[in-house]
Model the fold of this input.
Amino acid sequence: MIHHLPLWTLVSLACAVAAQAQPIVRHLNPPPAIILNGVTIPPGAEILMLSGQLADPIDPARTDSIEAYGDTRTQTISTFRKIEKALADRGYAMSDVVKLTVFVVGDPALGGKMDFAGFNEGYRAFFGTSHNPNLVARSTVQVAGLAGPHYLIEIEAIAAKAR
Done:
């Protein structure tokens, strides 16, 4: 025997299931950490993985030197702006970013050492702010080189939205 449920019962059940959607959990590190210890993404969340992004030149007519792209801080900000646009084009925001992988080339002006402080200055303009209080899980590594000789930084981003 088949029982037919009234429409309002089906709608109520659907709403109850939707209301049980689990949030993304950001596991904090103790202060003064500016990155997360980790992130738990619940089943059913939508995940977007962006390929590595590089800085745009400061002046598009000039692409012949590191100075044409700027120091690590300048390149970081340029790269995060590109990430911000790529996210927005897909309906995401910087507040949805949960993980970054950052590749930093040693700066010749610093004797070949990566400018970790310069990167963090750029990072802090986008994460842990009044506009976006969220932090992310993050790995930052120094590499020998990137796709072009004038890039100091490349950033991959993973964003997630609970559904």
